[in-house]
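help with these tokens:
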Amino acid sequence: MFKIYDISMTIDENIQVYKNKEEKKPVIRNVQNFSNAKAYESRIDIDVHCGTHVDAPLHMIENGETIETIGLDKLVGNARVVDLTHVEGGIGRADLEPFGLQRGDWVLLKTRNSLSEEFDFEFVYLAEDGAQYLIELGVTGVGTDGLGIERAQPEYTTHRPLFNNNVIIVEGLRLKEVEQGTYFMVIAPLKLTGIEAAPARALLIGK
């Protein structure tokens, strides 16, 4: 038998958002209900970087590729969850080298970010040298349990190099219940076009 791990954030009006900015919170409202209609319907106003989401290069690179250019074939397959819950601050090359990561891997960074549902202004992030190491390895993608893959780095020196080397970025994963190891991964962003990101449902399948 296999087990399915839902590693995506639940979207509601109390979801943690980047830097706790009010304008980033989703707004969900009922537009009709059984008191005034024969069916119940709701609307949602959501930032495309809310919760678990896939970034596209346009997010950080002028004239960069948009979200529909990331094929589903790049978002489905084996992924390595690496336990970095001991790391404080930035994840660097030295933190990643012991895992024996390989070219083509999808790497999911499990940190202490997964252990709280409150936004932490000192969240664990991928440092510039950690990003460069993953680029040198030739990984396919990197996912983080932070709402940002970097934190106040000048010139976006994690995002931009990853994008420039065709490494896919997923942010806002929930990995608290997932042990280190290899899983079958499915990340399904909303089918949007012409913009820089999309909210996603993310699953891992393992034993």
Remarks:
- Helices lie at 93-96, 128-137, 159-164.
- The mean pLDDT is 97.
- Residues 31 and 86 are 46 Å apart (CA to CA).
